Amino acid sequence: MSEHALDHHHDDHAHHGPAKGIKRWLFATNHKDIGAMYLWFSFIMFLTGGALAMLIRAELMYPGLQLVDPNFFNQLTTTHGLIMVFGAVMPAFVGLANYMIPLMLGAPDMALPRLNNWSFWLLPAAFSMLIIAIIKSFLGIADAPNFGWTFYAPLSTKFGPASTDFFIFSVHMMGISSIMGAVNVIVTIFNLRAPGMTLMKMPLFVWTWLITAFLLIAVMPVLAGVVTMMLTDRHFGTSFFDAAGGGDPVLFQHVFWFFGHPEVYIMILPAFGIVSAIIPTFARKPLFGYASMVYATASIAFLSFVVWAHHMFTVGLPLAGNLFYMYMTMLIAVPTGVKVFNWVATMWRGAMTFEVPMLFSIAFVILFTIGGFSGLMLAITPVDQQYHDTYFVVAHFHYVLVSGAIFSIIAGVYYWLPKWTGRMYNEFWAKFHFWNSLLSVNLLFFPMHFVGLAGMPRRYSDYALQFADFNWWISIGGFWFGVSQLILLGILIQVCFRKKGAPVSDQVWEGAEGLEWTLPSPAPYHTFSTPPIVK
Amino acid sequence: MTEQGSTPTQNHTRFAIKLGLIAVSMFVFAVGVMPPLYDVICEITGLNGKTSNEAVSAETAVVQEDRVITVQFLAKADPGMPWDFKPNVRSIKIHPGEIKLVDYHVRNRESVAIVGQAIPSVSPSNATAYFKKTECFCFTQQALEGGASMDMPLIFYVDPDLPKNVSTITLSYTLFNITDRVAQDPAALATAQ
Q: What is the pLDDT of residues A261-284, one digit of tens each?
């Protein structure tokens, strides 16, 4: 990033400050307030979805049924998946976008602050419906959705419990929220860049989010469409997915994965942006291959629309279809490889230091690549016949989502937290959090490859005896990882609420570049009311 | 929040509305375009194994005596369908072009009248378009009084243009209970009976 002039360094607080009490949050239009709410909301959802995962792993620790009945187990996995995908990972990225994109572009706020408020406040409403459903099921009142986060028809249409309609309404709300958030990001990026901030000067986090926002606008309506068709199939006599009325359940899978595969990249492209900000800072070198990173991101986004049927290799596609989707899927490894090599080349011969954001970013690069490789294995149609719906798939998508997306979010939080709060987190506990997370996440997910290859199917509350030892270790890893995240909670409470931690400079990190580091720490309530000049 | 002088709020709103229209059109695409498009693609390619719902007139096609095709018949009643449903033969060997009759036997286990609809699926999918029916119980709804049974005919031939690599065709029927659907529409019930 180039040089920048910043007026108004000291008199930012001369503008009106935040409103008092609950109104500040209910009627929030400030991008930092909304960003903070998004981030805290997603962290609460992360812990909630994590608590469900703890129950899942407790049941799977030993063969046989100990704690929950199979139907409730299915409700746990369903709600865990939905909460983690739509409640933890996506809102965390939207929160980071809200907070950081205006700071990175030299914009005074997001372009549509009221829309921003609405898109946040839809989320607690949407997720309370899902959470109430699982609590009611826990109390034995009524079943929660039990068909997996992919809610395939006819399992969700013909055989879904009554709460499926709440699930549908909930998905509609989170879809509207995501679309509005994406609209806001795009308008901000196109209209509110500081003078001199050309598109190819934007930080990569902004670029990846711009592309993600277009993906969201393109596919979240498709998700809304598929749940709407479910709703009319359930209650208004249509037969989109009902063979008896001339429909086809396989159509559901096509429409769902037409949304679902771009959704996968919605959850990983902003992660690429975060680590592309962090690695150059701590390698003290500019990002290697900036332009190729932008083009690679765009290629991944484009390819995400033509690979959806690789989730459906076992439904009986024609040979030509299998080959097409196999090759297209493998093609994605090329732009992804470009990115991984660029990160490695950025570190190459850099003056590297290993602060916590860097540790999480390096772990991201390695573990995400492992997840990418198992994805390549799954892309091979003939072997996918064997791997399909086994724990190998579970291992694959947890490597890319937990040690990929979530590690990048944690890295981003550690990286920008001093800028947000003006205080440095406790280095010892943060490193303790990192090493515990790193070791436990591998103990948790790596053995899943083995049991998956040996044929352990996913989505069951029980398993054959030969998988018992591995599953015991997997559960230990799960509990360890779960408890480790409470360290992060403690660190955040210390810094954000108890106001503990050493004050930091405006620059915070020695090698950091970008407009956000020209602002005071903590960043004032209103920033860049007069745009900086980017040369 | 103050706006930058060069970009008034209206600009943002207009841009946001345009993006919103993209979202709306994607919704319309998902609900209004994808399902019919899928049907058309399936009809052309036979992708989902659904054979044509129209009877073809039996052509006086040349029977290929030198080629033998195995045709297997599967029949399954949906869990909500209280009928026994099975083909009278499991599989037959025929020559392409040869016209065959196969009966399916159904019996209503309930004591009330029930209306059923059979949905076909052919595997492999590239054989779908070459499996021709001149008469089929699946073209119409079938009604059975309580406890009654009957034989339902299927008359078909395999088009001699069937791809060379296909030697076995599996025809699978699933029988659905559509009494409730038909009950809402008495005219359809009358036709069915």
A: 999 999 999 999 999 999 999 999
Q: For B97-146, how does the pLDDT look when each residue is reduced to its tens digit (9 = 90+)?
A: 888 999 999 999 999 999 999 988 888 888 888 898 888 888 888 898 98
Residue A90 is part of a domain; what is its CATH number?
1.20.210.10
Is B125 near chain A, with CB under 8 Å? Answer: yes
Assess if residue A10 is contained within a domain: yes
Cα separation, B136 vs B152, whole angstroms: 8
* pLDDT band with cut points at 50, 70 and 90 for residue A392: very high
> Is the per-residue pLDDT at A312 higher than 90?
yes
Identity (one letter) of the amino acid at A57? R
Q: Bridge-partner residues for B136, per DSSP? A: B154
Determine whether A265 is an active site residue.
yes
Instruction: State mean pLDDT over A215-242.
Output: 95
CB contact under 8 A, B38 and A254: yes
Q: What is the mean pLDDT of residues A467-488?
A: 97
- What's the angle, vertex CA A255, arms to CA A391 and CA A189, rounded to 5? 95
d(CA A317, CA A69): 35
Q: E strand or H helix at A90, and its extent?
A: helix A90-105
Is residue A46 within 8 Å of A88, Cβ to Cβ? yes
Total of domains in chain A: 1
| pLDDT number for residue B123 | 84
| Most distant pair of Cα atoms in chain B: their distance | 85
pTM for the whole structure: 0.90
Largest alpha-carbon pair distance within chain A? 70
Whether residue A531 lies inside any domain: the answer is yes
| Pairing label, strands B100-108, B168-177 | unpaired
3-state secondary structure A325-351: HHHHHHHCHHHHHHHHHHHHHHHCCCC
CB atoms within 10 A of CB A139: 8
Which residues are CB-contacts of A392 (< 8 A; sequence separation ≥ 6)?
A374, A377, A378, A448, A449, A452, A453
Domain membership flag for residue A76: yes
Choose, from A57, A311, A396, A398, the residue flagged as catalytic. A311
Q: Which domain holds residue A91?
A: 1-203+514-535
Identify the CA nearest to B121 among candidates B191, B51, B60, B175: B51
Q: What is the nearest CA distance from B76 to chain A, expressed in angstroms? A: 13
What is the Cα–Cα distance from A340 to A372, expressed in whole angstroms?
10
Sign of the Cα pseudo-torsion (A443, A444, A445, A449, in order): positive
Verify whether residue A308 is a known catalytic residue.
no
Tell me if A488 is assigned to some domain. no
How far is residue A338's CA from residue A517's CA, in Å, rounded to a whole number? 28
Question: How far is the C-alpha of A191 from the C-alpha of A188, rounded, in Å?
Answer: 5
The CATH number fitting domain B69-192, selected from 3.20.20.150, 2.40.30.10, 2.60.370.10, 3.30.70.100: 2.60.370.10
Q: What is the ipTM of this complex?
A: 0.90
Contacts of B176 in chain A (CB under 8 A): 243-244
Closest of A179, A70, A82, A74 to residue A130, by C-alpha: A82
Answer for the pair B115, B189: CB distance below 8 angstroms, yes or no.
Answer: yes
Q: pLDDT at position B54, please?
A: 75
d(CA A519, CA A526): 11
Question: Is B48 in the A-facing interface, judged by CB distances under 8 Å?
Answer: yes
Residue A530: helix, strand or coil by DSSP?
Answer: coil
pLDDT at A69: 93
